[in-house]
Amino acid sequence: MHLLEPRPHPSRVMRWTAPLIAVAATLLTGSFLFWTLGKPVLTSFHVFFIQPLETGYGWSELLIKACPLILIAQGLAIGFKARIYNIGAEGQLIVGALFGGGVAITTEGMDAAWIVPAMVVAGAIGGALWGAIPALLRTRFNASETLTTLMLSYVASLILAYMVNGPWRDPEGMNFPQSIMFGDSALFSILLEGSRVNTSLFITLAAVLLFWIFNAKSFMHFQIEVGGLAPAASHYAGFSAKQTVWFCLVMSGLTAGIAGVGEIAGPVGQLNLNISPGYGFAAIIVAYLGRLHALGIVLAGFLMALIYLGGEAAQVSLQMPYAITGIFQGMLLFFLLGSDVFIDNRIRRLV
Q1: How far apart are alpha carbons 19 and 80 in whole angstroms?
Q2: Nearest to 171 by CA among 181, 161, 156, 186
Q3: Is there a domain that residue 164 lies in?
Q4: How many angstroms separate the CA atoms of 89 and 251, rounded?
Q5: Separation in Å, CA 69 to CA 96, 125, 321
Q6: What is the rounded CA–CA span in Å between residue 28 and residue 202?
Q7: Does residue 320 fall inside a structural domain?
Q8: pLDDT in tens, the chain (351 residues)
Q9: Angle ∠(339,341,343) on CA atoms, nearest 5
């Protein structure tokens, strides 16, 4: 009989090597998957990982998809360090998009430079408020934030469906569940002609820099890490557990809300039922794959964006279902968590 015994000193080298192990295991399992589906393995890998980057437009799309993933994951990583598990960034993204979209719809026909900044602020407020609800439930009623944040994502999706099917539905949209297309004054400016890369990129860059400084220099970050690694020591030192919960959930909701505005005022250009292909959930994998480090998250975000692009290419070139994207994302998370189990624990044989 065997059991897992915690290692007294888990290897820091293996901690950073684990993402590479997870990627390698995902590729190996993916090759087996392609083979069982009757697809040429080498051709499939070329379509999935190389073909999307063979053109300049492909690289620009990689950047477009990486930005919201990186932005959301930066906020989630703070909470994960404190073992506060926000699983509902998708809902916070949607609510942020609703708040920002409300500004765009209200100001339709106006031409003012303040509209996009107002949308960003509104989206940040919306996402933060949606993150504050599970913070209140956790600190007031000791409700699990894992469950409440996840359930609130479904509530947010239903609110979005109601708004684009009802009050905000485009009267000239042939009854499709969508809002009006936003005017130029409610859209981020395009940075690269012939692409969809826009000025929301600078928000993500600023967020990476700010979170890197926060992680390196902030005493609040020290409190968060102590609270996650040693709750008893945190309590003894007088650190407020409630303050940590509120800060982590509101901050992660804020970044997700801004990412929602980045989508509706960027590549999507309106409110509809498909403003996010699951960025809020995929960002959880990005945060862990990046080892909860600001710069590591950037690399992980580009890898996850490539998986999104590869899944789209596989649909067209290999006639594979869209679910292939989710399969690769799931395998990546599974192997990463599996690697972490054996980094933190060792197998002990019971006689």
Answers
A1: 17
A2: 181
A3: yes
A4: 11
A5: 15, 19, 22
A6: 36
A7: no
A8: 567 788 888 888 999 999 999 999 999 999 999 999 999 999 999 999 999 999 999 999 999 999 999 999 999 999 999 999 999 999 999 999 999 999 999 999 999 999 999 999 999 999 999 999 999 999 999 999 999 999 999 999 999 999 999 999 999 988 899 999 999 999 999 998 889 999 999 999 999 999 999 999 898 888 888 877 677 777 777 788 899 999 999 999 999 999 999 999 999 999 999 999 999 999 999 999 999 999 999 999 999 999 999 999 999 999 998 899 999 999 999 999 999 998 988 887 765
A9: 70
Q: What is the pTM of this model?
A: 0.95
The total number of structural domains in the chain stands at: 1
What residues make up the domain containing 108?
A: 68-291
Convert 98-158 into a string of H (helix), E (strand) and C (coil). Answer: HHHHHHHHHCCCCCCCCHHHHHHHHHHHHHHHHHHHHHHHHHHHCCCHHHHHHHHHHHHHH
Written as one letter, the residue type at 47 is V
d(CA 121, CA 117): 6
E strand or H helix at 3 = strand 2-6
DSSP 231-250: HHHHHHTT--HHHHHHHHHH
Tokens representing 74 are 């930066």
